[in-house]
């Protein structure tokens, strides 16, 4: 059975490119437009990995990460951050909130798949 | 700007009249500045809409090309199987070349996925610039409302105007969010696993 990835980004083009890359590699992809949408969808789907942006309206990626880690199912699910941000301070916040890894945009499809393969097992 | 008009050497009634004019001009000036800042914001939004629209269309186009390439790939494999029993060397060679071209197209499409992310970076930078323009407008209006020049009507100098602008810029900077995009090019970003 294909593994399911929840891709969260307020940019429609980034969501499409992530979905295009992941679906091409055989993953199921659920898309969410911001943290709140992702949280709603996370409650209704069995997700194997979350890939989220940071800067989003309504709920940002760090808040989403913090709330997901409080849910039993998401305690040990890999959560990767995919963002334009690369500062040490914000990375440290992400790490403290329970992020599995940090990927700075723009992403390379092959490298993204390698990292996902590594953390998803 | 009205604040630039010095009122030195005027009588009390002249100064009062001058102040009233300056206040009226100040309001006009605020409205004009507000309109100007709004037009800058609208232009930034227009750039964002154009870039986003273009990128979304390109992503759809590239997705379509990718699907066609996959179909083409499968077709070449099917033809190869059909041609194999005949053992026609020229056909097999041609098909081999077709496969190489199909692989190359897929590689180029993958590279395009990295480059196409410029839309997201540009959108975030434009949003940041829009916030800065808004913040500057708000601070300039606040400082003008506080109206330090009103108290000093008649003593107003270019220096006080510069001081006001400088104060507004500093306030806007202090209240502004950090820049969300530091990338200077479209090279692949760093990856770190915790």
From TrEMBL, chain A:
InterPro entries the record matches: Bact_response_regulator, CheY-like_superfamily, Sig_transdc_resp-reg_receiver
SMART domains: REC
Stored Pfam families: Response_reg
Origin superkingdom: Bacteria
PROSITE patterns: RESPONSE_REGULATORY
GO biological process, one term: phosphorelay signal transduction system
Keyword Phosphoprotein: yes
Residues recorded with modification 4-aspartylphosphate: 53
Annotated keywords: Phosphoprotein
UniProt domain Response regulatory: residue ranges: 4-120
Name used for this protein in its record: Two-component system chemotaxis response regulator CheY
Lineage: Bacteria, Pseudomonadati, Pseudomonadota, Betaproteobacteria, Nitrosomonadales
Automatic annotation (TrEMBL), chain B:
Protein name: Uncharacterized protein
UniProt organism field: Nitrosomonas oligotropha
Organism lineage string: Bacteria, Pseudomonadati, Pseudomonadota, Betaproteobacteria, Nitrosomonadales
């Amino acid at each position: 059975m294909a593994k399911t990835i929840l891709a969260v980004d307020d940019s429609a083009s980034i969501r499409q490119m992530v979905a295009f890359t992941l679906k091409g590699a055989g993953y199921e992809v659920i898309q969410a437009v911001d943290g709140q949408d992702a949280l709603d969808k996370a409650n209704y789907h069995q997700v194997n990995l979350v890939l989220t942006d940071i800067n989003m309206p309504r709920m940002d990626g760090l808040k989403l990460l913090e709330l997901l880690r409080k849910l039993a199912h998401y305690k040990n699910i890999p959560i990767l951050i995919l963002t334009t941000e690369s500062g040490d301070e914000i990375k440290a916040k992400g790490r403290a909130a329970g992020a599995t890894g940090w990927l700075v945009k723009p992403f390379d499809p092959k490298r993204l798949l390698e990292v996902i393969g590594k953390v998803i097992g | 700007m009205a604040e630039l008009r010095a009122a030195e050497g005027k009588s009390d009634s002249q100064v009062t009249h001058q102040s009233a004019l300056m206040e009226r001009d100040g309001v006009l000036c605020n409205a004009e500045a507000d309109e100007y800042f709004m037009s800058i914001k609208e232009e930034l939004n227009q750039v964002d809409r154009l870039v986003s629209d273009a990128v979304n269309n390109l992503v759809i186009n590239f997705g379509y090309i990718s699907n066609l390439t996959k179909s083409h790939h499968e077709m070449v494999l099917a033809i190869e199987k059909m041609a194999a029993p005949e053992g026609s060397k020229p056909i097999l060679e041609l098909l081999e070349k077709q496969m190489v071209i199909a692989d190359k197209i897929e590689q180029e499409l993958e590279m395009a996925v990295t480059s196409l992310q410029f839309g997201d970076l540009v959108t975030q930078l434009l949003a940041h610039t829009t916030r800065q323009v808004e913040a500057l407008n708000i601070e300039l209006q606040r400082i003008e409302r506080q109206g330090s020049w009103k108290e000093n009507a008649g003593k107003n100098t270019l220096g006080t105007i510069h001081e006001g602008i400088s104060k507004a810029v500093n306030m806007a900077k202090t209240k502004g969010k950090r820049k969300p995009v530091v990338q200077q090019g479209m090279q692949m970003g760093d990856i770190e696993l915790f």
